[in-house]
Amino acid sequence: MTSSTKTLRVLVVDDHELTRCTLQLALSLQACIGSVEVAINGKEAIAKVQKLEPDVVVMDLHMPVMDGWTASSEIKNKYPHVKIVAYSAADGGKAQAISNGANIDAFCDKGACTRSLLEAIKSVS
């Protein structure tokens, strides 16, 4: 990306505080990302998407209150332009996540390195 290209607004959704904070820090250091906000579950994610209008949502699939499968579908129904990267340790990767009902644009395994997540974010934006 060149400096004239707009930077991405990212929302990280994960119920684990350490994961949220680590991803927020790591992603905020990337030149292509302008802002990184966080949410602790799918219900909060939907409210923050409405308020913040992020370009990309990094969504954990397994969360209390509202899981990532439900939240991703609701977000895509209301905001089809928002890209969703599932970030999960769920078995089977993207194909399994989609067959389980996740409405996502990309999948990144939680065991992958930060660069892999960044590449997934860039690939959908």
Q: Give me the Rg, rounded.
A: 13 Å
CATH top level is Alpha Beta
Per DSSP, what share of the residues sits in E-state strands of 2 or more residues? 15-25%
Largest sheet: 5 strands, parallel
Mean pLDDT: 90
SS field, number of helical segments: 5
Indicate the percent of residues in helices.
40-55%
Q: Gap between N and C termini, in Å?
A: 11 Å
The total beta strand count reads 5
| Quaternary state of the chains | single chain
Query: What is the helix/strand order?
Result: EHEHEHEHEH
Here the CATH topology equals Rossmann fold
Q: Name the CATH architecture.
A: 3-Layer(aba) Sandwich
* Order of strands in the sheet with most strands: 2-1-3-4-5
Q: Can you tell me the residue ranges where pLDDT is under 50 for at least 5 consecutive residues?
A: none
Structural class: alpha/beta
Pfam families: Response_reg
Keywords: Phosphoprotein
Protein name: Response regulator
Characterize this entry briefly.
With 125 residues, the protein is an alpha/beta fold.
Keywords:
alpha/beta, Rossmann fold, 125 residues, 5-stranded parallel beta sheet
